[in-house]
């Protein structure tokens, strides 16, 4: 990154404008604020970059990735524009705007570094969030989509791309089909919002997105290995190799997660309960899983997935200190947002260059018309949707005919729900990260065949799938009744009542123990008064099964009183600090306690 006038939160562009874009993200749309200030150009330390000024501001991947979050969350607020567009599209648009010749910011990628930096944490986060119950209940449906459909997509769409685009050889065509096979549940939620798609569909789509990320990227790795000349493809050999790297990767992820759990217990035993240390180890876990698995010759992709699925179900997080659990959840939510956002932002930064080089290549080739490039994107996307819809329809018919005793969930889907599941197969961050991870050069020093075309087509399909999803999914979801919320509320009420009853028994036992304990020296009247008050609150919650409306009204009223009390306490703390009655250290400690209590109350609304 040139040194002239740059800071970690500001880009000074060649026309003298300082650019710190700001994002304030909301649930289903994005509000972004732009701050532009004119600054004087600097001519001292950047003279050695003079030869690059016609091309704009340059830097390599390592130098620029730490500046890219500026496009996500840094800077002052001067003007805010609210647009009802999915977040990924907004991030791509901002990246493209930054890289446009007017601003001239360009980023050079190291594909191997990109793969290691972005793929493991994204897959780990997907594994962490996967709903276990739905994953196990719909295992047949998920593996039918994530393995069989991926295989059909790689072979069928690969041959289509080879036939459709003359400049792409067969093996790179398979590589492109492999990166186009994963779907993105995060991008889907950005389009339709949480809870809009019925849970019976969304649970399958989330499980599919997790598993086809792994299967698609493993297929990509095979295709790249064949293109690089490091692997000779045979059906039997590829099948054997697939199962070897898949099973080995899953086992590696389990082992690394187990070692992580043991290390946490070791740290706790030796007084290392510092949450920051434990969270750093958790952040390193997906990278450790990936790198160790790759080092021993198995799938690092599946190792990261397995580590994510294991970490929340192995009891490691349950035994972790409270402060660590609270911070880990919020930290990973932020990291997932940043990594997803940076992938789309980096796509936008690459987009003008990809478009320019692809159009230049099309003009230089007499057999290719410029309009054909965009037609290829539409045709490839249409083929992906047809294959997906046809596979879902075939699985529905197969289940109705051959699995009558225990049919798959597809048997109950209507044609409308099959269409929803088809258009819900949007492409996103994993597809982009995969295609950008394709090597620039072959071992002999020549360029990877048709790499620019692969990136251009993949980026085009991502954008087109998002645009089509924005249009089609809201139309298909109109007037669709979603009964999942009532079921979830019912489960919550049952769980709250059951836990309240167990808590009452525990308090009664504790009251008896304290009353009999002479060393505690607690007044019996005080003991009875406190336990009766706590048990009374719990009993009202336990009786909420029979009086739901009254219970909800009481909880809402109590929450409002508690929030009002917390906010007045916060104001008083600032007053005490202003009058020098308490120190800043005391203020920060007590504010942290109030923030935790307020976050808990707001979360339960």
TrEMBL record:
Query: According to its UniProt record, where is this protein located?
Result: Cell inner membrane; Cell membrane
Q: How does it sit in the membrane?
A: Multi-pass membrane protein
**Organism domain of life:** Bacteria
Sorted alphabetically, which keywords does the UniProt record give? Antiport, Cell inner membrane, Cell membrane, Ion transport, Membrane, Sodium, Sodium transport, Transmembrane, Transmembrane helix, Transport
| Principal subcellular localization | membrane
Residues of the Cation/H+ exchanger transmembrane domain: 74-478
Query: Does the keyword field hold S-adenosyl-L-methionine?
Result: no
Q: Where are the transmembrane segments?
A: 142-165, 171-193, 242-261, 298-316, 328-351, 371-394, 418-442, 454-477
Q: A Pfam family name for this chain?
A: Na_H_Exchanger
User: A single GO CC term, please?
Assistant: plasma membrane
Q: Which GO terms describe its molecular function?
A: potassium:proton antiporter activity; sodium:proton antiporter activity
One GO term of the biological process aspect: regulation of intracellular pH
What this protein is reported to do is described as:
Na(+)/H(+) antiporter that extrudes sodium in exchange for external protons.
Instruction: Give the family, as the similarity comment puts it.
Output: Belongs to the monovalent cation:proton antiporter 1 (CPA1) transporter (TC 2.A.36) family.
- The protein's name is Na+/H+ antiporter
Q: Which organism is it from?
A: Salmonella diarizonae
Name of encoding gene: nhaK
């Amino acid at each position: 990154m040139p040194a002239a006038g740059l800071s970690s939160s500001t880009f000074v562009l060649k026309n003298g404008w300082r650019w710190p874009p700001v994002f304030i993200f909301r649930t289903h749309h994005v509000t972004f604020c732009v701050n532009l200030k004119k600054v004087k150009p600097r001519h001292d330390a950047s003279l050695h970059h003079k030869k690059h000024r016609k091309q704009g501001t340059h830097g390599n991947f390592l130098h620029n990735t730490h500046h890219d979050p500026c496009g996500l969350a840094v800077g002052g607020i001067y003007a805010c524009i609210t647009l009802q567009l999915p977040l990924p599209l907004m991030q791509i648009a901002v990246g493209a705007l930054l890289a446009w010749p007017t601003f001239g910011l360009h980023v050079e990628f190291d594909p191997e570094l990109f793969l290691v930096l972005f793929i493991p944490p994204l897959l780990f986060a997907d594994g962490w969030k996967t709903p276990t119950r739905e994953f196990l209940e719909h295992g047949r449906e998920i593996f039918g989509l994530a393995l069989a459909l991926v295989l059909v997509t790689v072979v069928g769409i690969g041959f289509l791309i080879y036939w459709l685009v003359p400049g792409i050889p067969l093996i790179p065509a398979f590589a492109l089909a492999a990166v186009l096979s994963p779907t993105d549940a995060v991008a889907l939620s950005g389009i339709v919002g949480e809870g809009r798609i019925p849970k019976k569909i969304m649970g399958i789509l989330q499980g599919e997105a997790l598993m086809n990320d792994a299967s698609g990227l493993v297929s990509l790795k095979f295709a790249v290995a064949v293109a690089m000349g490091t692997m000779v493809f045979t059906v039997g050999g590829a099948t054997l190799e697939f199962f070897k790297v898949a099973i080995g990767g899953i086992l590696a992820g389990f082992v690394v997660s187990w070692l992580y759990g043991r290390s946490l217990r070791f740290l706790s035993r030796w007084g290392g309960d510092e949450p920051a240390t434990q969270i750093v180890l958790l952040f390193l876990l997906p990278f450790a899983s990936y790198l160790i698995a790759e080092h021993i010759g198995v799938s690092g992709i599946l190792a990261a997935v397995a580590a994510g699925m294991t970490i929340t179900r192995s009891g490691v997080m349950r035994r972790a200190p409270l402060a660590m659990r609270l911070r880990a959840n919020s930290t990973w939510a932020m990291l997932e947002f940043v990594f997803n956002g940076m992938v789309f932002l980096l796509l936008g930064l690459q987009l003008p260059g990809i478009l320019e080089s692809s159009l230049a290549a099309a003009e230089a080739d007499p057999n290719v018309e410029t309009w054909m490039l965009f037609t290829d994107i539409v045709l490839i996307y249409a083929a992906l949707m047809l294959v997906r819809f046809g596979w879902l329809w075939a699985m529905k018919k197969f289940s109705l005919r051959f699995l009558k005793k225990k049919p798959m969930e597809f048997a109950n889907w209507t044609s409308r729900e099959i269409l929803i599941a088809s258009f819900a197969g949007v492409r996103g961050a994993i597809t982009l990260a995969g295609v950008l991870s394709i090597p620039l050069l072959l071992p002999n020093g020549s360029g990877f065949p048709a790499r620019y075309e692969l990136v251009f087509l993949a980026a085009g399909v991502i954008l087109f799938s998002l645009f089509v999803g924005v249009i089609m999914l809201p139309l298909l979801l109109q007037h669709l009744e979603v009964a999942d919320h009532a079921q979830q509320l019912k489960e919550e009420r049952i769980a709250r009542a059951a836990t309240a009853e167990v808590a009452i028994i525990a308090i009664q036992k504790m009251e008896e123990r304290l009353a009999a304990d002479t060393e505690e020296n607690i007044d019996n009247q005080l003991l009875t008064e406190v336990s009766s008050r706590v048990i009374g609150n719990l009993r009202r919650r336990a009786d909420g099964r029979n009086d739901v409306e009254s219970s909800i009204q009481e909880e809402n009223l109590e929450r409002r009183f508690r929030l009002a009390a917390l906010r007045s306490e916060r104001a008083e703390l600032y007053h005490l600090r202003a009058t020098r009655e308490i120190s800043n250290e005391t203020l920060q400690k007590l504010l942290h306690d109030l923030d935790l209590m307020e976050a808990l109350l707001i979360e339960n609304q």
